[in-house]
Specification:
68 residues; alpha/beta; 18% strand; elongated
C-alpha cells in the first residue's frame, strides 16, 4: 500500500533515500544509478555507500540532486 504524505495538488519530488553504488556493495556506478533513477522519474537520490562519504555533486543538474 502506498501512502502519500503530500497533497496531490502541490509540487513534490520522487526520491530514493538509500542505495549503494559500486563504491561499496552495489551493482551500478554512481553515474549508472543517476541515469537509471532519472529515467524512472526520480529527482533525488541518496547514495549511501558503506566505505565512506563520497562527493557526487558532479552528478547534480537542474532536475536531479544527489545526496551523500
Amino acid at each position: 500500500m502506498k501512502k502519500y504524505l503530500l497533497p496531490t495538488n502541490c509540487n513534490s519530488y520522487k526520491a530514493n533515500m538509500h542505495c549503494h553504488s559500486t563504491l561499496s556493495d552495489g551493482a551500478m556506478t554512481p553515474e549508472e544509478l543517476k541515469e537509471a533513477y532519472k529515467a524512472a522519474g526520480y529527482s533525488v537520490l541518496a547514495i549511501t555507500d558503506h566505505e565512506g562519504i563520497f562527493d557526487h555533486s558532479y552528478l547534480n543538474d537542474e532536475n536531479f540532486l544527489t545526496i551523500p
